[in-house]
Amino acid sequence: MTTELVRYVDHTLLSPTATVADIGALVAEAKALGTYSICISPAMLPVTFDLGELKLATVCGFPSGKHTAAIKAAEAAESVSAGADEVDMVIDLGLVKAGRLESTRDEIAAVRAVVPGVLKVIIESAALTDAEIVATCQAAEAAGADFVKTSTGYHPAGGASVHAVELMAATVGGRLGVKASGGIRDWATAIAMINAGATRLGLSGTAAVLAGAAS
Fold it and tell me: Which sites are catalytic (predicted)?
């Protein structure tokens, strides 16, 4: 099961103090563990280390989402040109809270237009009601996203929950992937997220999570 779970993992380093040396260590650890990808900040692109079979993911509008659609699209386009295979964008939560789901769809579509690879949409599920989670997932699907993702890991409302993942998975019905991210720090939680319907996991402490499989 350890080998199977690790292929779900975006091995993540989004610390504002990350250095090029830290990215090198992240790549080495990801390759040793066999994760699906690494996920890093756009300022750390391009990556000069040999990625091997690793996919390269980055973030957009991170972590607040309070950027214009044009800025998010420009940031994503620059990341793609610097080698990113996947982009995890943060929506503007204020649009959802105001019931402006068409605007949410439009900002996702603006980023979708410049990302030829995988686009994941971070909805900050802990900050939304169930109805808002459903509506936001529907907007992401309508805009052409490939994944919906629970959290940045930076919002004070919290990170991923089993309930949110179940609701997101039920809403997208297998047509989109579901990435659980934010606060997943042990094996039991990681497995619970997968059982709830997650098809990708965002982990910063991947080695520690995997070590829990034997405990």
Answer: 88 (proton donor/acceptor), 149 (schiff-base intermediate with acetaldehyde), 179 (proton donor/acceptor)
**Residue 192 structure tokens:** 């619970």
92 is catalytic: no
What residue type is 108 in one-letter code?
I
The answer as to CATH 3.40.50.720 being correct for domain 2-214 is no
Contacts of 138 (CB under 8 A, 6+ apart): 101, 171
31 is catalytic: no
Whether residue 88 lies in the annotated active site: yes
Instruction: Give the mean pLDDT of the chain.
Output: 97
| Residue 199 near residue 177, CB atoms below 8 Å | yes
- Choosing from 10, 88, 92, 146, the catalytic residue is 88
Contact 133, 125 (CB under 8 A): yes
The pLDDT tens digits of the residues spanning 160-171 come to 999 999 999 999
Name the active-site residue from 10, 72, 120, 179: 179
